[in-house]
Amino acid sequence: METFDWEGRRIAWERAGSGPPVVFCHGTPWSSWLWRPFADALSGDFTVYLWDMPGYGRSSKDAGHEVGFDVQADAFRALLAHWELDRPHVVAHDYGGVVSLRVHLVHGVPYASLLLVDAVAIPPSGSPFFRLVKEHPEVLARVPPYIHEALVRAYVANASHRELRAADVDELAAPWLGDEGQPALYRQIAAYDESYLAEIEGLLDRADLPVHVLWGTEDTWIPIAIGERLAAGIPGAKFTPIRDAGHLVQLDAPVALATELRSWLTSVSAGLPGRVER
């Protein structure tokens, strides 16, 4: 793991492989851990980059640092410049969707392609628990640690259509436990501002790159109809449903996701047109 110091924050990142660059963006309450097996599988043909947003995973979680969409987009833009990448392929899940879209549509950073997986990108968004926390972040940040841990474990498990392995729940919950992790979880939910999603929806028709939208058919956090609307708003975007998968497609349908990832990246790297599946 390496770190990038940016505006007082420590951003954890890693790189592997060789070939065209592919950058993976995670969402909330996740980290780059979700993408690591897929990055490893692609590293024989691509240079893969993983990073944890400030306030997430192994990156710093300073209580005084803002963690909203605008800050995360600025951090991603700075990280791309630090890596000296020119037109990388970007793969984004959940919050990573609005962050990567903002960097492209608002800040004008070019990508070779963009693949969005059950992305937070257009309104509305958020699970019932997420909306509850949004309304009462300070109260929940003060619950006893054993209650908080039970909430977090139930929260992350609820994103899956299939029952998660205990080891996977442990990995997903770990960054949000302890004196640093507990307040960090509620702080990033409190920073959620849906106006950024409305802004992105109004700019979708400006996207001038190959875009593929993947969506779990059983996603109860962000229903597939939102994914279809997202793809419909992007000129020429390809849409593919992932059967029997919830919001955590990486764990619900890893083989299907890995197949779509490699097929997409191979085709766009070779300049081949993608098909639209609805």
UniProtKB/TrEMBL annotation:
PANTHER family: MONOACYLGLYCEROL LIPASE. This is Alpha/beta hydrolase. Pfam families: Abhydrolase_1. Keywords: Hydrolase. It comes from Amycolatopsis eburnea. Residues 20-254 form the AB hydrolase-1 domain. GO terms for molecular function: hydrolase activity.
